[in-house]
Amino acid sequence: MIDYHIDADGIVTLTIDVADRPMNVLNHASIAAFDAAVKKAIADPAAKGVIVTSSRPEFVAGGDLDLIRNIRTAEESFAAGGPFSKTLRLLETSGKPFVAAINGSALGGGLEICLACHRRIVADDPGIQLGLPEVTLGLLPAAGGTQRLPRMIGIKNALPYLLEGRKADPAKALEAGIVDEVVPAAQLLERARTWLLADGVKAVQKPWDGKNFKFPGGGPQTPGPTQIFFAAGGALLAKTQGLIPAPEAILACVYDGCQVDLDTGLRIEQRQFARLATSQSTKNMIRTLFYDMGEANRLADRAKDVPVRKYTKVAVLGAGMMGAGLAHVSAVAGLEVVLLDTTLDAAEKGKAYGAKIMDAQVAKGRMAQDKRDATLARVKASTDYADLAGCEIVIEAVFEDRAVKAEVTRRAEAAMAPDAIFASNTSTLPITGLAEVSQRPAQFVGLHFFSPVEKMPLVEVIRGTKTSEATIAQALDFAKRIRKTPIVVNDCPAFYANRAFGMFPYEAMTLLGEGVKPALIENAGRMAGMPMPPLALIDEFSVELLHKALKQARIDQGAAYRPQPQDAVMDTMVEKLGRIGRKAGQGFYEYPADGQKRLWPGLAEHFPLAKEQPTVDEVRDRLMMAQSLEAARCVAEGIVTERDADVGSLLGWGFPSVLGGVLGYIDTVGPARFVQRCDELARRHGERFAVPPALRELAATGGHYREA
Question: Active site residue: 448, 606, 685, 704, which one?
Fold first, then answer.
């Protein structure tokens, strides 16, 4: 696991190779092996200096999250993180020089090894990433990262790496002072060896272990950093609403730990780490963001007996915003694309959408001009269905109109290869119904992308009644090919994401119709941790869109349609007031040309305020529990799996990751308490808060949806 080699000049090379894992990670075994190798080198009288490097493409990718996932007590936390931190401190104060020869990405604990070394030399490879991303999983660097990095590069410069999980390539790391040298990969080990022999003996004490050490840019109590802490604390509270403890814990580590000696600072870091490692919020984030997301991206539930389909060419029917976005991401993924519309001008306009995105990237230095040109050249604007020949998949992204979709389905199938898949990007219309016009419904599937396609990572793969398992598997292959995270959803109106997420804006409009103050609704949404408050969010995608779905439901269901509490609000906003949202310059908010948007004062006239206002906690519960209840119904109906329900909620509409997703939220509250609260809400506000039998049974038996 750690290869130990000493040469004739007394230079020890410790080569990390965690052979039983896909990449180098820190776990009980590798930490113990590293500790033993470090102690051997320190004790070896022939050893003059030590190189730490890796035999794998990465240096060390961070900690093995299985180690963290199983922590239940503070004592277990100290046992997990403490020994590694002590090893690095021993390395640092041993009196022998250690140099990190960084041949690949060093993240989390991997970078902490490098920070403890007396010199850091990295290979000149722009693909290498250096960073401390623990905060993104609700954790903090627990082997000195919160203490050494501020002492090296200053508090102001260190905080973005600690609080945001920012990563740097070798050039940026050198500029920031995180590494000391960038050299060609072929010279990495020799340069490390040369430094040890020539200069290593002069650098065996870190600056912070000297008597006159001063923080670059000032310590925590000096004016500059003090202002930074105040500003960072306020910004964090506004961003996280106090729901995510990791950034707060990191700030505490830096503020408290950087006022004392390093050894005391490391103990402070360990205490804060224990608080996070045992918290439900951290376990939620690790489970959903790492394990669940990893399984979804690996296509863990894909039918194993279906051969993986290799895609080379895709057709997109409809060059509006969705179709243009689909064409762009497909071309970026290296596929040939036919972008077809009723006129060549419309198709070219859709192609130009991708060009505009890439032009901005070129201007910012994020894409080379030749790559931009080659990507754009892969998109063929067309009006001719004959161009669909050779496409392995055809995706329609035309208007949400059954007749229009039926027409393009017929025309496309007449031109497609016999084994090609036809996919509909509809967001609301059931796939089974759309597939009725298909001559091969087994090869008809739903691919519900989210807008804007180039930014939103989720795609719902919708299984119609006649969709074959082979088609589902190959649709998953396509999602992976264009670098999207797929979840599989069984067919129903609005599918899963729109159905569950829809409860958020619907409940907000219901509250407004009841006379709840608009500002109270918005503040409750913010405090719940949602990306945007609900009324502002409705303005972004337009209440007109929801109203169209309402009208379609009324038509489809006829006399069987049951009016919902939010219907009257939508009718008023769209039909009576014409305030359809931001695109029209007026919605629940007004958008003055000379200032920031603000809630429209006229809401009080059309939705008079109730004399008694609910508490912010009640409004927050209604907004959040409505989403989770609908997700629980979808799971109970077999529409979506528990894992995909949580993944879909995080990626599809930004449900707070700290809660673990919509079902993770139920578990976090506690199923029994959640059911009790919903029963209270149902008595006051109606059957939309009725608990499905499966959830009630789960609560009664002390169960949970997800493992901790």
Answer: 448
